[in-house]
Amino acid sequence: MDPTELSAGALSRAIHSRTYSCVEVMRAYQARIDRINPICNALVSLCDPETMLEQARRCDSELSRGLSRGWMHGMPQAIKDLAATAGLRTTMGSPLLRDSVPTEDGLMVARMRASGAIIIGKSNTPEFGLGSHTFNPVFGATANAYEPSVSAGGSSGGAAVALAHHMLPVADGSDFMGSLRNPAAWNNIFGLRPSQGRIPQWPVRDVWINQMSTEGPMARCTQDLWRLLQVQSGADPRAPLAHGEPFPDWDDAADAAPSLKGLRVGWLGDLNGYLPMEPGVLATCERGLARLATLGADIEPATLGSSPAQAWQTWLTWRHTLIAARLAPYLQDPAQRAQLKPEALWEAEQARNLSALEVIEASAARTAFYQNLCVKLESYDFLAIPSAQIWPFPIAQRWPEHIQTNNGLIAMDTYHRWMEVVIYATLAGLPCVSVPCGFNIQGLPMGMQWIGRPRGEAALLRSARVYEAAIGDWLAIRPVLPEPRPDRGA
């Protein structure tokens, strides 16, 4: 079997049993990337192939001496182009950082390297990760795995497409406004936004206030999601708000769990009509809920229990503030400011009009929202809601200015309003997994979010593992591979 067809867990076992050498694995992934990536543009800043093969030989030499770095020993990995990678440029999709080469790895990257990953390049992202559509002036746009003419989502669009096309065994993402949940949904894979503090970030300018963005795992199966989360998570003294209890080992018994009898799921849907949705989104998610019901889960209609309009205003205050702080180093110099995309400048301008008191009030509103969801989750094991409000839109479109609903055309008043559905897990800092739930008649994928209890990733993933076994027909639908280009000798 081609090693690129294996799950990351199976690949790890095959490498450690010497079924495949690390060099064979690297060559297989290089061949696949060489064939597919020119079509979809998911991976960028790819490293020299011979250098990567030399690293793979080193990994083989270590195994021959009985040494393993960890679960990811010899696995090719491309890191999202927002995370610092020592010696490999990290552009954040911005022309301001086109030639930026960090001298040290980010904490998550360091942990993945320590577990044996071989970093072969970066995965594409929007400029500074802003917007759920992966395009930027440095590398261009990433095409959806299932239909190259539409968006891959974002900001972890490159990672999602690389996974769907088996150009990576597993991938890292990051999530502020659905940045790994939306592309997971639109590329038929799994993505986990962990609890606030589960995966600490370093280096960062602020360790106290900026707690809404988090890194996290993406995978084609829940077991790989679990194992990558184990690698990425854990306390670090430089991140004082991170929680340090070790994430448990994968329980093989979960593979044999026959049902979800007694599982209580609150279905939020479109929040009683508050969230505009394109036709078919809710129905597709409800087919996923029907699969849950056949496994014994009890599905009930649920509400947020608080005003979604107020949650949006709270969200805007937080987002403007945090993004303006992130962009502050580039806003002072007029020449650099001129190179920022309009959406980034808009966020910064909105932040200028906020007072410190308004930010504190938004913090209090966020606290109340979190406490309210915790009360809701006393009645449910998790809350379910679509991962996106629309289907993937044309790749040349900057962002959707309207949503066509069954009741008419609804205008979007910001560049990210069409993704309002993802803000609730972020505001509350709760774990949230995006799981596949099928396709529309055009063959485009959709997913739904499961929002769990505080630090409840293990419970979410155990439920997702049982659900995964019931959606094998959807997971088996693979992207159509591009034909090899004659000039590449494939």
Structure description:
There is one protein chain. By secondary structure, the protein is α+β, with helices and mostly antiparallel strands. The protein has one domain: Amidase signature (AS) domain (Amidase signature (AS) enzymes), CATH 3.90.1300. Helix content is about 35%, strand content about 15%. The protein contains 15 helices and 15 strands. The protein has helices at about 10-15, 20-40, 50-65, 105-115, 155-165, 180-185, 220-230, 280-295, 310-330, 335, 340-350, 355-375, 425-430, 455-470, 470-475, and strands spanning about 45, 75-80, 120-125, 135, 140, 170-175, 190-195, 215-220, 265, 300, 380-385, 400-405, 410, 430-440, 445-450. Strands 6-8-7-14-15-11-9-10 form an 8-stranded mixed beta sheet, with helices on both faces. The chain has a 3-stranded mixed beta sheet with strand order 1-3-2. It has a two-stranded antiparallel sheet with strand order 4-5. Helix 7 packs antiparallel against helix 14 (about 455-470) and helix 9 (about 310-330) packs across helix 12 (about 355-375).
Q: Give the full name of the CATH homologous superfamily.
A: Amidase signature (AS) domain
Helix count, DSSP H or I runs of 4 or more residues = 15
First-residue to last-residue Cα separation: 18 Å
> What percentage of amino acids are in beta strands?
5-15%
Radius of gyration: 21 Å
The largest β sheet comes out as: 8 strands, mixed
CATH structural class? Alpha Beta
Q: Looking across the biggest beta sheet, what order are the strands in?
A: 6-8-7-14-15-11-9-10
How many separate domains make up the residues?
Answer: 1
Q: Regarding quaternary structure, how should these chains be classified?
A: single chain
Mean pLDDT across the residues is 95
Low-confidence stretches: 485-490
CATH architecture: Alpha-Beta Complex
Proportion of residues in helical segments? 25-40%
Query: Structural class of the secondary elements?
Result: alpha+beta
Per CATH, what is the topology? Amidase signature (AS) enzymes
Number of strands: 15
